[in-house]
Specification:
Helix content: 25-40%
Radius of gyration: 19 Å
Strand order of the largest sheet: 4-5-8-11-12-13-15
CATH topology of the largest domain: T-fold
CATH class of the largest domain: Alpha Beta
Number of strands: 15
Mean pLDDT: 95
Number of domains: 2
Number of helices: 8
CATH architecture of the largest domain: Roll
Distance between the termini: 47 Å
Order of helices and strands: HEHHHEEHEEEEEEEEHHEEHEE
Low-confidence stretches: none
Length: 267
């Protein structure tokens, strides 16, 4: 793939397609807007933890620090279609991959006028609604309870027309050691799982890549900083904290219905 070619050519400049350059620019813009909370150079650190692999473990400080030296979105330079980054830096677009997939699907649907409405689910954490239902009613998407992932849903989010929803939570991939939950959403500043007081973040906006990347960034940032970031992107956010409170931006209040009485809505 082109991302593989960029990584193999680290230390030099790689020319990529317009599509790849457009995705990279959007990701780097989001990385900057979030002060690096979402960072596309974290791939090697993620693989070191191996949280959803065969050998999930807490890395040594030495291992982590050696990889963190090569982490930083600002190490990647994009000039038109030319990508340059130093040796040792690795690009990994996993934090936005499902959103990119949703955007690609939307392009196909826009070109195919036979489809008036549909809903697309990429692995549960990324959802796209498209067009309208035959009866004109809104789309309804369930949100997982981060502490009851096999049982009842936390609530339901309404999507109107073509919109993108993404959820990031500490319940999707994790292991527990000595009573501590180590999940897959890593903080680029520390290399450790983010500890922002949140257990789940759901974002709704008009772009798949942004929805996907924003849910990760917001989880790392914590509720207050996340709300500021969402304003920049005109996106709605739903935050679940580790005290079983649900917090919402103004726009989300109009589209979310809480179904679980074990949670309370924070004001």
């Amino acid at each position: 793939s082109q991302i593989y070619q960029i990584n193999q050519n680290a230390g030099n400049t790689t020319t990529v397609s317009d599509e790849t350059a457009t995705c990279l620019k959007q990701i780097l813009d989001l990385s900057k807007a979030s002060d690096g909370a979402m960072d596309p150079t974290m791939g090697r650190v993620i693989r070191l933890w191996d949280i959803d692999g065969e050998n999930p473990h807490i890395p040594s400080d030495d291992e982590l620090n050696s990889l963190l030296e090569n982490v930083g979105y600002d190490k990647v330079t994009l000039d038109g279609n030319k990508v340059t980054m130093p040796k040792g830096v690795t690009l990994d677009l996993g934090a936005a991959g499902k959103g990119i997939g949703c955007d690609a699907a939307k392009k196909i649907l826009d070109a195919d006028k036979n489809v008036s409405g549909m809903i697309l689910n990429l692995g549960g954490s990324s959802v796209m609604s498209y067009g309208s239902k035959p009866d004109g009613s809104a789309w309804q998407v369930a949100v997982t309870d981060p502490r009851d992932t096999e049982g009842d849903y936390l609530g339901v989010v309404t999507l109107n027309g073509t919109e993108f929803l993404s959820t990031s939570g500490d319940y999707e991939k994790y292991f527990i050691e000595d009573g501590v939950r180590y999940h897959h959403i890593l903080d680029p500043a520390t290399g450790y799982p983010a500890r922002s007081g949140l257990t789940s973040v759901t974002v709704v906006c008009d772009d798949g890549l942004n929805a996907d990347g924003l849910s990760t960034a917001c989880f790392v940032l914590g509720k207050e900083k996340a709300e500021e970031l969402l304003k920049k992107y005109n996106a709605d956010g739903l935050f679940v904290d580790d005290s079983d409170h649900v917090w919402m931006t103004e726009g989300m209040k109009e589209r979310f219905q809480l179904l679980k009485d074990t949670y309370s809505i924070g004001e």
